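Explain this protein:
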Amino acid sequence: MEIINKSSISLLEMLSISCCASLTCIFSKGQFPASLKHLKIEDCSELTILSPRDLLPEALEVLVIKYCPKLESIAERFLNNTSLRCIEFVSCKNLKSIPAGLHNLIHLSDFSIFDCPSLVSFPEEGLPKTNLEILYINVCEKLRALPNHLHDINSLYLLYIQRCPSITSFPQDGFSTNLTDLYIEGLNIYKPQVGWGLHNLTSLTYLSIEGCSEVESFPQEEIGMMLPPSLKHLTIRSFPKLKYLFPNGFQNLTSLESLFISNCPNLTSFPEVGLPSSLLRLSINDCPLLKKQCKRDKGREWSKIAYIPSVYMDGKFIYD
């Protein structure tokens, strides 16, 4: 089934298609109208290609494709698509590659990929270096490597990498030191990032680390791991073997305002020197041993957190 093939659409600027179960191609006998700026396709279970000419319109600014499980390719390459500002691919289960020429999208500011388990790699040239601000890579199970040249993207401030277990290589120069928000999950990302040095991210204010099954101390004492003093918000989640928080790693966090610790069943205590005095909010979830030691006015660790205005244990405000 073809949905559009009429000359009257030559001035079309916005096109949204959803829930077309029999749609296999958007423009089967031609190409996209040159005027098209916004293209959104959602819940088209039989869609396999966008256009046989394999080119996107030059005026395109926003490209969103969601829940199209048979779509294998977006286009052969981004050719003269420098107007693109936002790209989002969600649950395109069969998508294997990103078009070449991605690095030429000089106005791209937001690039998100969610649940594309067949994606193997990014184009060799990497990502655009001028205006990219947000990069989400989530649930890409076959992705082998992060994009090249991440360190050179000075505009990037938010980086989210989660559930990409096949990534085996890490950018040699690490991430851009202008990052303010970093979310990472899994030892395959955590270990090389720590080896490169989280403390190098001197602008970082939000850090979330999840799913590090072998880590027993945080920051890791044995390698002298340090966190950037610019941090304001820290989340530690799903460290099943975590036993203690390394004191030296917290002493320099003089700007830390919130600390969230979740699913760390073997964690029993806070650093002996206590937590940063700047802390305003503490949330502890699914940490039964630590929770026991933090009982109000009774627990061994209570004195270390009594000064914090807002403390939650398993979702309950302890001062109620």
User: Anything to note?
Assistant: Residues 12-145 form one domain. The chain has four helices and 16 strands.
